[in-house]
């Protein structure tokens, strides 16, 4: 296994019966799941809700989890992704911006944040505005350092599709970032 | 790049540049409540012990007490803080049974919404009256309480102040048990939280038109059928009807309508509630009420209540104070619409179709003629005019006399008044609806837009500044797959209508919030088909001056981040020559006082002094080594443009003020107004209005002469407003003396002063 190998596999098996082992898994993965949830939701209370849902779902379904060659965290990310999607279900704010018509579709947070925050924050705010699947792929790759195969498993897509998502995400940022920098007038 | 996958994937130089940037720009560490991680672990472990196959039963709280000695120590102390719970242990039936106040929902949070109830669940039955009587909130806050089962819900009567550290104290008291000694006094539970910062007010008031407006997503705020009619209050809360009992309400009377004008309930089975923009039910205002309408001036609402086959028009206070709602009039039969406010002290309603007006003493206003209303009815915000659709045509009537003031074109309906008394309306013509506008001078109506579409236009809603109108467009006849869309159009018609939100989803009955930042609408649930309420978020593109203001604030942010980190070298780099000279001369300090650190900061005021020069009032909250917020220091930073960026030119520091010693000013805003500007001073506490006088809150000039009128106080927003006479380029001072007192009798700890510098000509 990429991040935990045999130890993790044994820990996961024990966690199916042993609360303390499940606790150890929680300790190991809480930070990244919470970080991932927050990166998608940008609100502390919502990130807490999603993180809670992820680990409770994992606990309830531990018996059904089978090792498939991917890290245990992939499964947790998958649950988190679904929980976030549930949260956003039906929200037009989550629709792909290129689909939106009428009112200006550039989310205002981009401009405001660009002006207020540092460059790193600007980049991640711009990622926030990407279409849902692109954003998930970008966050997992650049924020969580996941392998493309793993991202594919989490998103339920082929590796090729994930590469395409990453490509499109980078292309879009490439188009938008200079504009944002120009608006700020302080390209660094 | 160090990731081979990325190396393989991105070979184009421009792409690689972006990838490098992404790889080096990690997302910031998210804010995390230190209790949450442990709290969740505790919950999970309890669940794991119950559900995993090889579970071992344990006493309810054994997992909370890691070792017997610790448990004994906790019992001896009578007070225990474990993993986000504060647990009071009390004797019951000879054994220790804990009653826990679960404070993790709010304790330690740093971004709490100002219009949300404070919820504190208890793990078991408590003596509710005894708990309620022990509640203390600082800063002084008037509140009501209710109970959802064992959850205590504290509802501030008015929105909380932004940027403020609140402390809530209470004591869990278990329900007395038969044949058991009365529970002994319990230790106090203390909850701390900090409210969210408000958006920084732009130096130039925003213009809400279709070129400036940005839609940034929407979200549902209620379950299907959870509420009926809904409308905004002037304070940004939502007035709703809520089905009384479960089951009966899900069908006929459960559908949500943001209009508040169309009936959706068929019986008396609704109560009237105040709801937050996030969908939290705040407070029940009236039992068995329907068709609520908030007064445009705020503070009051009117509604109908049925008794048998008679309807009674009542009014009451939006904050629940003042006792039971007062009856104003009765009619035979059921009303079909909400009462219509005329200014702050009269209400219009229909009695068997006949227009009647009553004042808040219940006295009927005698109208010169009989007006039988057959359709739309709306009162102007200043209360002087009524637009009414009658069988003989539509007209504007004088609200005092009932005489026709201005006939309207044939077929005029769907009336909506702007904040400046402009009237928008629709002329219904099959297949060719028209949107028209009658300006406040009532000369002649003009066509804003017309289109040959087989749709009807309804639910006109003005932007708060009166520059644009939202309206719903729905198919003239029901057709499968068709639903309401919402459009935005400028009042002058320029640019034509713009689709609001998106074309793929329903946006029905739009209602623009008083702040302009939200639009309330209803949408049918995909599963049940029953409507629920949604809120869409909108903002305005910043003007050039706003961008400059934002850049100046970004510079302040950079400067403060360096100071908060203790990196004084980096902080000095943000000073210009003047600032640096003053710093080096010892005239100002960048470091926090010894033994204290800057816990947080927020902007109190922003003023444009001249082109490229801002005066930023900043509050630095100081905490001790135990991270307890103890005092604050106000600074005024002069920020000037220097080439492409802003720099700090000067800092003026005020003496430290102790926290928790009476009300404090949290925001000062100078607002353009005719005939003279207004100074808006917001406090963190509910104040004693009798202490707000021209001697306690005023603006004076350099010679000490008072330049402000008698202040007014809005207790809903803790806001004191001063009309002032100021000359551009001169310097004035806002003064708040120590005679200002909160509702608990605490005075302002230390006289507050803040510079007021109106912009010189050309500054804007």
| Backbone shape of chain B | globular
Helix fraction of chain B by DSSP (H/I, runs of at least 4):
10-25%
Q: Which fold name fills CATH's third level, the topology of the largest domain in chain B?
A: Neuraminidase
CATH topology of the largest domain in chain A: Rna Polymerase Sigma Factor, Chain: A
How does the overall form of chain A come out from the CA principal axes? Answer: globular
Helix content of chain A: over 70%
CATH class of the largest domain in chain A: Mainly Alpha
Measured by DSSP, the beta-strand proportion of chain B falls in: 35-45%
Main sheet record of chain B: 5 strands, antiparallel
Strand-pairing-aware structural class of chain B: mainly beta
List the helices and strands and how they pair.
The complex is a heterodimer of chains A (188) and B (764).
Chain A: H1 5-15, H2 19-41, H3 44-60, H4 72-88, H5 108-116, H6 119-128, H7 132-143, H8 148-155, H9 159-184
Helix pairs in contact in A: 1-2, 2-3, 2-4, 3-4, 4-8, 5-6, 5-9, 6-9, 7-9, 8-9
Chain B: H1 4-9, H2 13-24, H3 34-51, H4 68-77, E1 80-82, E2 85-92, E3 95-102, E4 118-121, H5 128-133, E5 136-138, E6 143-148, E7 151-156, E8 165-170, E9 189-194, E10 213-220, E11 230-232, E12 238-243, E13 270-275, E14 281-286, E15 289-294, E16 300-307, E17 310-317, E18 326-332, E19 340-342, E20 346-351, E21 354-359, E22 364-365, E23 373-379, E24 385-390, E25 393-398, E26 404-407, E27 412-417, E28 423-427, E29 434-438, E30 446-450, E31 455-462, E32 468-475, E33 485-490, E34 498-499, E35 508-512, E36 518-524, E37 531-540, H6 544-565, H7 568-572, H8 577-584, E38 597-610, E39 613-623, E40 629-642, E41 645-653, E42 657-658, E43 665-671, E44 678-683, E45 697-700, E46 712-714, E47 719-723, E48 732-736, E49 752-756
Antiparallel strand pairs in B: 1-2, 2-3, 4-7, 5-8, 6-7, 8-9, 10-37, 11-12, 12-13, 13-14, 15-16, 16-17, 17-18, 19-20, 20-21, 21-22, 23-24, 24-25, 25-26, 27-28, 28-29, 29-30, 31-32, 32-33, 33-34, 35-36, 36-37, 38-39, 39-40, 40-41, 40-42, 43-44, 44-47, 45-48, 46-47, 48-49
